[in-house]
Specification:
3 strands
């Protein structure tokens, strides 16, 4: 459909042997604000991870008519809250789908990160922590 940005069909995903999403079929409209609500542990972050490409589904399909994937920045990872993660590090997470989790940033990645930070007016916070 022309007014649909993302279509999910029979989507299943999880962690290890634990399935969190069970047969999700849905459409996300184009050019609309869409809220994802649910109880803790209901699979919201898992679904967003699949849509952003940081978590592979175990079955089903995700089709996007958008030129780019949605970005995903986690509020808290499975690490201590005192982890010294800078604002620039956090913005750099948006490059993961383009380079993988453990590959070094390229000059092009660094340019994109700087441009994005400048665009939203947070360049001055680059070295500050996200805590």
């Amino acid at each position: 459909m022309a007014d649909t940005a993302i279509t999910m069909r029979g989507l299943r995903a999880g962690y290890g042997s634990t399935t969190v999403l069970h047969g999700i079929t849905a459409r996300v409209p184009r050019s609309r604000v869409t809220a994802l609500v649910g109880h803790n542990g209901s699979g919201k972050s898992t679904l967003l991870g699949v849509l952003a490409g940081t978590l592979a589904p175990s079955s089903g399909t995700v089709e996007s008519s958008c030129a780019q994937r949605p970005a995903l920045v986690l509020q808290r990872a499975e690490v201590p809250a005192a982890l010294p993660l800078t604002v620039r590090n956090t913005v750099a997470m948006g490059r993961w789908p383009h380079r993988g989790w453990w590959r070094r940033l390229t000059g092009g990645d660094k340019a994109v990160i700087s441009e994005c930070m400048d665009r939203v007016g947070v360049t001055g916070l680059a070295g500050g922590t996200t805590q």
